[in-house]
Specification:
Elements (H helix, E strand, L loop, with lengths): L16 H21 L3 H35 L8 H31 L15 H21 L1 H7 L2 H8 L2 H14 L6 H27 L30 H11 L1
Helix pairs in contact: 2-3, 2-7, 2-8, 4-7
Length: 259
């Protein structure tokens, strides 16, 4: 019995070098724009307003992005409702949401430290009380998720993908803990913020429901029989003259006759 393996998805042009170059160019453009704003008084005023906005809402934006990351992560490996091409698109959206969430999270942590709302140690160690500590735990878990996402290929090469899945599952810890942090730390949340948290819960719950339904509807995996020639113990007969030794003189003679 032989087992014939099929590719997990069809070839796609979505995950290409041009997309990565475009993302890098976009980041460089944003950084250059920020630097240009610092050269004028009007630009500094605009940056001040932007910092004030991010001081209050960078954490919310990080939570929304993390919610999209978790929901898409639940759907990317699904083979019942999603076609191979759509799974690839979902994986790209999952990576984009994770990148945006990481950027907002780092911005949130940097602003909280630079504005002296928390100590630098609070970024990695829960030393500022239980409510801020929820954010610290979520940040540490998110760091593990990002690192494992970057080095995913190394786990696949070592033949221990279960280690990667276990470590990458830290996202399922970071997400609910970050919601607790957002609801309890800092100022009292506005009504629309609370509703956004409820929407985040509904989004992940919906993705989890789809994943469970697909798992139940997935057909069982069975081995596939492939026709193959029968093995035989009979010796293989080699025609006369094949691979027979030829002297150097004989080879030269044949070469001259052929020329």
């Amino acid at each position: 019995m032989l087992h014939r393996r099929h590719p997990r998805h069809a070839p796609t042009q979505l995950d290409t070098r041009n997309i990565r170059l475009g993302a890098s160019a976009s980041i460089a453009a944003v950084l250059l724009s920020v630097f240009a704003l610092t050269l004028t008084d009007r630009g500094m005023e605009m940056l001040g307003r932007g910092v004030s906005f991010l001081e209050y809402y960078a954490g919310v934006l990080a939570l929304v992005s993390l919610t999209a990351t978790v929901a898409l992560g639940l759907l990317t490996t699904e083979r019942v409702f999603l076609s191979p091409a759509n799974r690839v698109r979902a994986q790209l959206a999952h990576r984009a949401a994770a990148f945006a969430g990481t950027a907002f999270l780092l911005t949130h942590v940097a602003l909280m430290i630079s504005l002296e709302h928390v100590s630098p140690a609070a970024a990695v160690i829960p030393v500022e009380g239980i409510y801020v500590g929820f954010g610290t735990i979520a940040f540490d878990a998110m760091v593990v998720v990002v690192i494992t996402g970057i080095v995913r290929g190394r786990f696949a090469v070592t033949g221990r993908p279960w280690v990667w899945r276990l470590m990458h599952a830290s996202a399922y810890v970071a997400w609910p803990v970050s919601i607790l942090h957002g609801l309890t730390a800092g100022r009292w949340a506005a009504s629309w913020v609370s509703w956004s948290y409820i929407a985040c819960l509904a989004a992940v719950a919906s993705a989890l429901l789809v994943r469970l339904l697909a798992t139940m509807l997935r057909p069982p995996q069975t081995a596939e029989w492939v026709d193959a020639p029968e093995a035989s113990d009979a010796p293989v007969e080699v025609p006369a003259g094949v691979n027979a030794p030829v002297s150097l003189a004989e080879a030269r003679r044949k070469y001259r006759e052929a020329g």
